[in-house]
Design brief:
Distance between the termini: 48 Å
Strand content: 15-25%
Organism: Prevotella communis
CATH superfamily: NAD(P)-binding Rossmann-like Domain
CATH class: Alpha Beta
Shape: globular
Order of helices and strands: EEHEHEHEHHEHEEHEEEHEEEEEHEHH
Strand order of the largest sheet: 4-3-2-5-6-7-15
Structural class: alpha/beta
CATH topology: Rossmann fold
Number of helices: 11
Radius of gyration: 20 Å
Number of domains: 1
Protein name: Nucleoside-diphosphate-sugar epimerase
Keywords: NAD
């Protein structure tokens, strides 16, 4: 593994008005000195743009002295823009988090996934080829495991049966990165995230959507009659994993044929403790009451509906993160209750003030 000191480096974080990206930039502000951090995001309206704007406002307020931080409103699918940025900044490390997320949205709006997740990622790869970087880190997803029956999910498993276009684009990212690593000797690491949650998260995620509905008195639908399990990962654990991986790039080596062995790796980042959806909803409700988002006497049972599995969903996600522990000394540690407590307290402050 090639160690990288991120201090005084020029770093591109795409999608950094998003949930994970904004938290990553906050962490880089805290940890690094002398760094230049460029944040590009298209600020699309897939979910409430005011949430993205509030994240950007927070980043501006937290920007430390001596840190050159730049936000650019733009789309990674815009090749001339990406080429211009790489020409201007000569990035040392690139973290590609910009993507069209969500399984169900990919069923009705496939074009957004092709543009951002395939064309956008291709533009990033091409820019890394033409302006060599020390490390490209990019977001993949636990969705690539599709309907795999073997658990926990390991990066050694075959992932050739996606059940959504979103999953197919993420698997494609891994294949494209492998190809570019092999052909152009670009060190790249893909990270398969498992159900990321936390304060100021994505409103299309279950914990956030359930909260909005319960607050309005609506009924929440629990898929597969509650017989789903999810490996929830708190955003701070995800960011810790990303920062560690950024600092350790796959090593460039030559094979017996004299050609590069692809400096390429893929890791799971997940807690390795899948939670039953009904237990998850119970903890969420308890924490929402504790934070004062919902009243003490809220009738939860009257607002739950058990429904069949939805297209594109999978019954279980369960991460085997032993490779991340082995190579980077890290395993996610924040419990679901602790994480949902932070979310509920943030929600009470952000929406109920």
């Amino acid at each position: 593994m090639q160690q990288i000191d991120l201090n005084n480096k020029t770093i591109l974080v795409t999608g950094a008005a998003g949930f994970i990206g904004s938290n990553l930039v906050k962490r880089l502000f805290k940890d690094l000195s002398g760094a230049t951090i460029v944040n590009i995001d298209n600020m699309n309206d897939y979910y409430d743009v005011s949430l993205k704007e509030s994240r950007l406002k927070e980043l501006e307020a937290l920007k430390p002295e001596g840190c050159n931080y730049q936000f650019i409103k733009g789309d990674i699918a815009d090749k001339p823009l990406i080429d211009k940025l790489f020409d201007q900044y000569h990035f040392d490390v690139v973290v590609n988090l910009a993507a069209q997320a969500g399984v169900r949205y990919s069923i009705t709006n496939p074009d957004a996934y092709i543009q951002s997740n395939l064309i956008g990622f291709y533009n990033i790869l091409e820019a890394c080829r033409n302006h060599p970087v020390e490390h490209l880190v990019y977001a993949s997803s636990s969705s690539v495991y599709g309907g795999n029956k073997k658990v926990p999910f390991s990066t050694d498993d075959r992932v050739d049966n996606p059940v959504s276009l979103y999953a197919a684009t993420k698997k494609s990212n891994e294949l494209m990165a492998h190809c570019y690593s092999k052909l152009y000797d670009i060190p790249s690491t893909g990270l398969r995230f498992f159900t990321v949650y936390g304060p100021a998260g994505r409103p299309d995620m279950a914990y956030f959507g359930f909260t909005n509905k319960l607050l309005k008195g609506d009924t929440i639908q629990i898929y597969n009659y509650g017989n789903c399990r999810r490996d929830f990962t708190y955003v701070d654990d995800i960011v810790e994993g990303i920062v560690r991986v950024m600092q350790g790039a796959p090593e460039r080596k030559k094979g017996d044929d004299g050609l590069p062995i692809p400096p390429y790796a893929v890791y799971n980042i997940g807690g390795g403790q899948p939670e039953n959806l009904l237990d998850f909803v119970t903890i969420l409700q308890e924490e929402l009451v504790r934070a004062g988002v919902l009243p003490q006497d809220f009738d939860f049972e009257a607002h739950k509906q058990l429904v069949p599995m939805q297209p594109g969903d999978v019954p279980t996600t369960y991460a085997d993160a032993t490779a991340l522990e082995r190579d980077y000394g890290f395993t996610p540690k924040i419990t679901l209750r602790e994480g949902l407590r932070h979310f509920a307290e943030w929600y009470a402050q952000f929406y109920k003030k």
